[in-house]
Prior knowledge:
Chain A has helices at residues 3-10, 31-66, 83-90, 92-125, 130-142, 145-156, 162-169, 184-209, 213-221, 226-254, 258-263, 275-285, 289-317.
Amino acid sequence: MTAGTAGERTAPTPEPVPVPGPPLPADRPTRPARRREARAGLLFVAPMLLLFAVFRFGPTIGAAFLSLTDYRLSGDWRFIGAENYARLLQDDLFWSSLGVTALYTLFFVPLTVGLSLGTALLLHRAVWLRGFFRGVFFLPYVTSIVLAAVIWKWIYDVEDGLLNAALGVLSLGPVDFLGDERLVLPSIAATSAWKGFGYSMLILLAGLQSIPREVTEAAVIDGATGWRRLRWVTLPLLRPVLFFVLVIEAIGAFQVFDAMYVMTAGGPVRASYSLVYLLYDTGFKFFDFGYASALGLVLFLVVLVFSLIQRRLIGRDE
Amino acid sequence: MTTGSKRAITPLALLAAASLLAGCGGDGGAGTNDVTVWMYPVIADPEVNSAYWAQIEKDFEKAHPGTTVTVEQQPWENRDEKLATAFGSGKGPDVVLLNPDQVPQYLASGAIGPVDKAVEGVKDKFLPNALTALTHDGKLYAVPIYHTVTTTLYNKKLLDRAGITEPPATWDEVKAAAPKLKKAGVATLDYSASNEATLNLNFYPLLWQAGGKVFSEDGKKAAFNGPEGVAALTFLTDLYKAGAVPRTALTNTNIFADHPMGKQQVAMGFSSTLADADLARKAWGAENVVVGKPLGDVKQVAFGVPGGLGLNADSRNTAGAEKFLAFMTEPARIQSLGKASGFLSPRTDVTVPSDAPYAKRFQEALPFAYPGEPSPVARQLMSLIAPEIQAALTGRKSPKEALDAAAARADDLLARQR
């Protein structure tokens, strides 16, 4: 990633030995030079490291500590060990919100990845107005989720929403997209997918463009067409990027909150009450910061597991 | 700091600090000449609001040379989150606008102090209900500067369409009107069942109308799941199932525009404000707006609260802050604020001169105004009850089951308080 880590990795074998494989850089820097380079690298990343330590790492440690206390608004607190975690295991709200979050992830991830893969494939092929469409598809990503949620709330409206008007023309409905416990998660997932697929689309598009042309050309010469070429050539070569996108989107899905807050306020009957929503309520409505920190840490562990899986998968493909 | 003894020390320290302040005789810390005030958009028009408070700053400083006051405008949204965080980190304002249901929680955390001194000698000039709502253990914790009230608002055009000549004023009349209005293609009673909508404008008024209460007498148990609560939720659920409450109720918040009232999809609201009535005049035409008395069943009651100014217990300028509180309760300010905001006077000897078309009707509703039951967990409780009301509306639970489930959670919450 940086000169620093590259230097570390080669440190045990400082002298270049002739090995078969990728050619080494023509003039490898000498050891002091490398050290200087490492120092320079460290200096370059220092501001970011500092920001990360102060605003990410520090608060994380702080939250981990808070989760072992019963810290409340009044500022007084006791060290209560794992009590918050014990309470968490017995809290049906925690389990139901975890279930909602998992279910939402199951709706959201395939939808987003499917949408971004589809658009990326189309854009990859398109020669005409590619930049324009790329911009258009990316546009929702840079709009505010609150704005998107408000607009989609109107679209889903059971009385006079756009979707129900369309269904009405086909003499179907009205469908209560946000008021029905079975429909609310797919509906919110669709909104979030619409809003967020542009990011993954760009990554997948970059992945597609990095697939060597010779490979696809060879497949064409061998007589592979359309679907078969996609299935047996493009997708396997795209796999690392695809995994990356899957994991990133899954992590995002686990942190869902804003869309639910704006569109349904967690309803109907907590059918869209996610883990982060519970965390928000616990912290900022109930002022029960210790317990909220414990919830946050559980979420952190879930995301961590996903990240480790991602590392393993990507690492293997390298 | 790291041991449990902190728990005991904090209240003791606060007590000591409070008695010290009291002993100082109003000199209150004397750390600064500044007074910071957190104000909210009590005047809905942002420009009028900021102009009004800028003028107040000037007038106050003229009347009390040597004390500077800064009125900081805060949004209503996430009001408690912000205030609680500010108090918790010691950065709270000297003076803050409080509603009665907020007082107990900040009192419990030791964030606010008594304000009796600011209204010495004029206490008997205030509406007794307003003072009671802001008083705990014989001490007043916010001086009322205005009073709100809600009442029924009817869309005459829709009632006419259904052939209803007399606006429904009781539950029975609402139930009787529902089928006729349904035939006319509209819903009867507006309701917001979103988890983020305040119950003060939705379920609680119905509960109070049925003669029920949210908390038990000692405030330690839930009481909303009694027969009165079940009657209220059954009334609501039956209407919802019959299509007499808008189907969007589950996601609606109490907003007029872009919601069923504004879109003329529902014939009446039971928690409408003067501002709603003014919007209705513009949206429906003056000839279609009827403002009624509060809805009634066993009791006739609507939500209405005094807005009061509270005092930071750790203020570095208690004396200056008290001067500001006294200044804001003088008749001239009560009148000017009432006129600008459309709210009513919390004083019995002052009426707000108003040329707003419906001000008189709202004034008539004031005797029925009820501010709710004070509790440190009043706001938190709402987020436990709201999803259960949704469960009843969607038919997943019976009204009794839903309220019992909410009550179990509420008792758990009350038991966890310390």
